[in-house]
Amino acid sequence: QHYRILSGDDDIGEVTSGCFSPILSSGIGIGYARPHIVPKNGRIIVMGENTSKIESQITELPFYKDGSLRY
C-alpha cells in the first residue's frame, strides 16, 4: 500500500489497497491517479518504489466477470 503508480517516468498516483486473489491467481490492487493523465484500459503501468517495482495492467471493474462467489 501507498506505493507510487508510474506511467513511463511520470508519477501518476498512489496504490491504496492490494492483495492476492486466489480466484484470479494474481495480485489485484486499486489506487488513485490524477484524472487528466490516467492511462487507458489495458495499458501497462508500474507500481512500486526504488528496487521494488511490478508491472501492472489497467483494468475496468469488476475484475472477475465469469462467475460468482455466492453459494
Overall body shape: globular
Q: H/E series, N to C?
A: EEEEE
User: How many helices does DSSP assign?
Assistant: 0
Could you tell me the mean pLDDT? 81
Q: Quick one: biggest sheet?
A: 5 strands, antiparallel
Structural class: mainly beta
Count of DSSP strands: 5
Rg, alpha carbons: 13 Å
Q: Which strands sit side by side, in order, in the main sheet?
A: 3-2-1-4-5
The poorly predicted ranges are none
Instruction: Give the distance, in angstroms, between the N- and C-terminal Cα atoms.
Output: 31 Å
- What's the helical proportion of residues? under 10%
Strand content: over 45%
In short:
This protein is mainly beta. The chain has strands at 4-7, 10-21, 26-33, 44-49, 52-57. Strand 1 and strand 2 form a beta hairpin.
Describe it.
The protein has 71 residues and is mostly beta strands. Helix content is 0%, strand content 51%. It has no helices and five strands. A five-stranded antiparallel sheet has the order 3-2-1-4-5, with no helix packed on it.
